[in-house]
Amino acid sequence: MIFLCMPSAGASDGYLTGLIPREQEVNQAISAAYNTDDVQQIKWASYGGGLNVRIMGVGLMPDPEANLIIMECLTSDFNGLKFLAPQVSLDDSFQSQMAAGNMAYRLPSITELTGFPIEIFAPYSTLTF
Question: How many domains would you assign to the chain?
Answer without folding.
Answer: 1
